């Protein structure tokens, strides 16, 4: 019975992780379409994105209710990290190309999460270090052709976005009610969104397409995606949560192949194999070596 429950929990973690990563990849595409084509300014995109998340999440949270009786307050610190990520990401995106931005963002996320994990007393097995290195090399290899020298401001903003997202992720690992916690985290960004709106109002510009992309990014890819991610985090270690996010660019590239008939390149295949192999080492490495060590002692 215990084994069955464990298998069910593992299946749920894999499913929710996959859905969250797909949402992240979709969000990346939506942001690129909106900001890369200048159909909306960065401030307006951020405000509409987070407001859309507030509306969608509050509706879903009210419909679902608090079935498990867990806390559903979220936290001000998580909300601040959410806002910092969203605003820094938007403004960085208009000064960086896609490859460079992704490399800085996910590099900052990995470093932030792994360092904070080490500072909290966790120690990584050599197989986990090897897996992280392999996955990140695969990620860099995938992004390399599109990387250019970033502007100082773009680099700083995307680094802030990566650090904020890493901390926001870590704060979600103890969530007992992911949907409600995510909803209230979004709600608490409202005072900051008002400030942004007042400051950036004179320079705002947007089109119907830009608004639609921001709504889809906020209500679906961000709002629902982040709630699903908080759900998945309950079954992931900090290291696993950090390294699996390196799959996001791969998923986006595969989506381009499936939906837009883009070519399947050798670089995509090799980088995907490296990232997946690295993730497998992180997920299974510690377990395998712990079992082997236990058997050697008996």
What does this 3D model show about the protein?
The protein has 298 residues and is mostly helical. The protein contains 12 helices and no strands. Helix 2 packs antiparallel against helix 8. The longest helix is centred in the first third of the chain and has 35 residues, at 2-36. It is globular and about 60 Å long. Mean pLDDT is 84; it is low at 1-8.
Residue windows where pLDDT falls under 50 for at least 5 positions: 1-8
Number of distinct beta strands: 0
Helix count from the secondary structure assignment: 12
Largest sheet: none
Quickly count the domains.
1
The level of helicity is over 70%
Shape annotation = globular
Strand content: under 5%
Q: What string gives the helices and strands in order?
A: HHHHHHHHHHHH
Distance between the termini: 26 Å
What number is the mean pLDDT? 84
Q: Structural class of the secondary structure composition?
A: mainly alpha
Gyration radius, to the nearest Å? 19 Å
